[in-house]
Automatic annotation (TrEMBL), chain A:
Gene Ontology biological-process annotations: peptide transport; protein transport; transmembrane transport
Membrane-spanning parts: 17-39, 72-96, 102-118, 130-155, 211-232, 244-265, 277-294, 306-324, 344-364, 407-428, 448-471
InterPro entries given in the database record: BP-dependent_transpt_permease, MetI-like, MetI-like_sf
Name of the featured protein: Peptide/nickel transport system permease protein
Automatic annotation (TrEMBL), chain B:
Gene3D superfamilies: MetI-like (1.10.3720.10)
Domain of life: Bacteria
Transmembrane segments: 9-30, 135-156, 177-195, 215-232, 270-295, 315-341
Organism: Lutimaribacter saemankumensis
Record family assignment: Belongs to the binding-protein-dependent transport system permease family.
Protein name: Peptide/nickel transport system permease protein
Boundaries of every ABC transmembrane type-1 domain copy: 129-334
Topology in membrane: Multi-pass membrane protein
Length: 481, 348
């Protein structure tokens, strides 16, 4: 087996084009910025049919056109690498092709999702409007790429090797190194090389996305539950309650996050059961939230009220008890303990929720204070609605725009926090393939071997970037109406 | 105004007390004390040996009492051994117990003794804080002007090519945490694999003699993350100001575009970024911890990691007091500064 190059025989054709196109594109973008700063905007003229068009000629007109054209060409070239690579596969199309072929299920899922969404975008509300904004689409694409990778990797699709397998002779090998003595049916290369313990970097990076995709959105959701349940009354009632809760929130926010992590996520603290007690408090908020949500709406119709409460609360309660109870820990009294969460995951989850909730609290509080002065709230008060009905069914739906945008941003921030935990070796076990831990391991040999640390770093970057772009797109679209 | 500041300082002290108590409580949980005893004594201590080690040093008292001792509001613990020698927190080796002060805590200016570095906490904190101060100075010097310029250029003509490119850049830097950008920067500029080797991948030598080669990468890494955020805020504020009535009036009067930006828009557009810059300090503190660990620059953040990793209680308390004060003071400054910059806001 020969060592793979990055682009293989496909590169013989495409690489020269790339080497010409990239500098041209960069030069045009720089030129375009210079033009837009230095020259005035192109003068407009009114055509006989009433439309406007730029007066032809001048760099202010042709530079943007050329830079757009070269950008499109570049995009087409990248797609060519990926599509032809996915068809040709590893030896022919090199490492890029190998990876692209490995990710074929993800490509298919993405194409299907986008095709369906764009087709029905008029009927999909805010989600559909996202497909009107380029930024939003790019962000959504990046995010969904990692969501699909995480989902497929969870069932061990896409992976070329098991993330914990060590193969002798593959320690710190560069990307594309063929597997020594590979057996029939086994994948023949380490596409992105081997790490310091001779494990496959590519598979570990994919597997790491599962952890992030599973924890980050869920932890953010919990933080929102906590923040909303406490922030709405604080903003609506004001007064002593507000002062007290705001003081608590500011207290947590004044803590340096890393100090907090070090205090919460060490094995000694885990042994005292403190994270579990915190989980008892923090995880009860979704229950409170849904109970109050239903009760405030259907309180007047006892029949419906009890049915809905039972449908929602019984499973949630069982789930809650199973989550906080774990065998051989401080809290272990519940006989119906269906599953145990790995203690590392629980601690990480709890501390991330704990760090995020005060910020959400402050945002919700601010929004509630603003919205409670509106007329429709006064109307509801006049109708004689209860305070919780007003908070949850009048104020909250009207605060959804900023909250959805912040939700996206906060998932990104949570991802960064998870990476920080991994970077300091806190919480998750050291062999865990999550991105933070992998970066932490890879950085030790960074001056000699780049390939173990860079892929997880770029993966994390692209996911967080995707979430930020998605939030930007959503903000833009939600401001339009 | 005076009353406002007084009230804020009161809240600040209350917050600092609460926070230090939380840190105190967490570090004094029994498993943590056991770890401390084992790392300071030896790892094969029996449970009884651990208990007596802790007893001798006063760790077995109740947490509020220990906390009050650390504050210096109650006389500190003394242990009398069977042979009559008295040891205690306030008694330095070689000093007669009778001469030693009864109270020694924060209020008396005694910050305790670090069990990891074997030095007084006050000395460690001040030297490390000095090193971090140098780092932060350069970060600010790089970050603030470039972020403001980026933001103003982008917000000046909303929707132009400059705006889009600079905004994309700003979003990318906010999406890149320090441990990612640091790794990428080291990989590109400092590793032998790429071969550029313009800078050094470690800043250990920058503690004595900071120069461009060993100090630029850590400074850039911290600055990049904060820069995007400030630039976006500046852009939003600038874009808003540029749509204001008085800017339109200035345009209609025939004021030239550079003049509008420099003389009419800029001052109003910089109010919001000022608060943001001040509120960035807590985040920068985070970045400092990561970057100092990554680049092995033994400053304040590095000390925090060492203290937290080894459960060095008094050093950790000192570090958290300092960081909490930094956070709260910057919040206070940002509030006061906001009032001064924007006459429409009043604190009362």
């Amino acid at each position: 087996m020969e060592e793979l190059t990055w682009t293989g025989s496909l590169g013989d054709i495409l690489d020269p084009i790339l080497f010409v196109l990239v500098p041209v594109f960069v030069a045009l973008v720089v030129l375009r910025i210079a033009v837009s700063v230095l020259l005035p905007a192109p003068t407009m003229q009114t055509n006989p049919d009433g439309t406007l068009s730029a007066v032809s000629g001048g760099p202010a007109v042709w530079v943007p056109k050329l830079s757009n054209l070269s950008g499109l060409l570049l995009l087409a070239l990248v797609l060519a690498y990926l599509i032809v690579g996915a068809i040709m596969g590893a030896p022919g199309a090199g490492i890029i092709g190998g990876m692209s072929q490995q990710l074929v299920p993800v490509w298919i899922a993405l194409v299907v999702l986008f095709a369906v969404s764009i087709n029905f975008k008029r009927r999909l509300g805010l989600y559909g409007k996202l497909f009107d904004s380029t930024i939003g689409m790019i962000g959504f694409g990046l995010v969904m790429f990692w969501v699909f990778v995480g989902a497929f990797a969870a069932v061990d699709m896409l992976l070329t090797h098991a993330p914990l397998d060590q193969v002798s002779g593959m320690k710190n090998k560069v990307p594309g190194t063929p597997l020594r003595g590979a057996e029939e049916g086994e994948f023949q290369w380490y596409l992105l090389g081997g790490d310091a313990l001779a494990r496959d970097v590519f598979s570990r990076m994919l597997k790491g996305s599962t952890i992030v995709i599973a924890i980050a959105p869920l932890a953010t959701l919990f933080a929102f539950m906590v923040g909303i349940t406490l922030g709405l009354p604080a903003g609506y009632y004001g007064g002593k309650l507000d002062t007290f809760l705001s003081f608590l929130a500011n207290l947590i926010l004044a803590f340096p996050v890393i100090l907090l992590f070090y205090l919460l996520v060490t094995p000694e603290i885990v042994a005292t059961g403190l994270p579990q007690y915190m989980a008892v408090v923090l995880f009860v908020f979704p229950l409170i939230f849904s109970a109050v949500l239903i009760n405030s709406r259907y309180g007047g119709q006892p029949g419906k009220n009890w049915t809905y409460l039972a449908i929602v609360l019984v499973p949630l309660f069982l789930l809650y008890m199973s989550v906080i109870n774990a065998n051989d820990s401080k809290i272990d009294f519940w006989p119906l303990d269906f599953f145990d969460i790995a203690p590392g995951i629980l601690v990480v989850f709890v501390s991330v929720v704990f760090v995020n909730s005060p910020t959400v609290f402050r945002i919700v509080r601010g929004l509630a204070m603003d919205i409670k002065t509106r007329d429709y709230v006064a109307a509801a008060q006049t109708r004689g609605e209860g305070p919780w009905y007003i908070m949850l069914w009048e104020i909250l739906p009207n605060a959804r725009g900023p909250l959805i945008v912040d939700f996206c941003l906060r998932i990104g921030y949570t991802t960064i926090l998870l990476g920080t935990l991994g970077f300091f070796g806190l919480g998750l076990p050291p062999e865990s393939p999550d991105w933070g831990s992998t970066i932490n391991e890879g950085r030790k040999l960074l001056s000699i071997y780049l390939h173990p640390a860079l892929p997880p770093a770029l993966a994390l970057l692209s996911l967080v970037l995707g979430l930020n772009l998605l939030a930007d797109g959503l903000r833009e679209e939600s401001l339009k109406d | 105004m005076g009353l406002f500041i007084l009230r804020r300082v009161g809240v600040m002290i209350l917050t600092a007390l609460c926070l230090t108590f939380v840190v105190f409580f967490m570090t004094n949980l029994y498993p943590n004390l056991e770890k401390l005893a084992k790392t300071q004594g030896n790892f094969r201590m029996s449970d009884e040996a651990v208990a007596s080690w802790l007893e001798k040093r006063g760790y077995m008292q109740s947490t509020p009492k220990k906390y009050a001792e650390w504050l210096g509001v109650v006389p500190s613990y003394r242990f009398e051994a069977e042979d009559g020698t008295v040891t205690g927190r306030c008694i330095d080796p070689g000093v007669d117990p009778a001469d030693a002060p009864n109270f020694c805590g924060i209020l008396q200016g005694y910050w305790g003794y670090s069990t990891v570095f074997k030095e007084p906490v006050s000395e460690i904190v001040s030297t490390r804080l000095g090193l971090t101060g140098v780092l932060m100075f350069w970060v600010m010097l790089l970050m603030v002007p470039s972020a403001l310029i980026l933001g103003v250029l982008a917000g000046m003509r909303e929707g132009s090519a400059t705006d889009r490119t600079l905004s994309t850049f700003a979003i990318t830097t906010t999406a890149t945490p320090e441990y990612v950008s640091g790794v990428i920067l080291i990989a590109v500029f400092a590793s032998s694999a790429v071969g550029l080797k313009w800078f050094k991948g470690t800043a250990a030598s920058a503690m004595e003699s900071p120069n461009f080669e060993n100090f630029f990468l850590p400074v850039l890494t911290i600055a990049l993350y904060g820069m995007g955020y400030i630039a976006r805020m500046t852009r939003a504020s600038m874009a808003e100001v540029m749509t204001a009535q008085y800017i339109r009036t200035a345009r209609l009067k025939g004021v030239s575009f550079p003049n509008i930006v420099m003389r009419h828009a800029l001052r109003n557009a910089l109010i919001a970024p000022f608060t943001v810059i001040m509120l960035q300090f807590p985040w920068l503190l985070n970045g400092v911890v990561i970057v100092e660990t990554l680049f092995n620059y033994k400053g304040f953040g590095w000390t925090l990691v060492q203290a937290a990793g080894n459960n060095d209680i008094e050093l950790l308390l000192g570090v958290s007091v300092v960081s909490v004060i930094v956070v709260l003071v910057t919040q206070l400054i940002s509030d006061i500064g906001y009032v001064y910059l924007n006459p429409r806001i009043s604190v009362t």
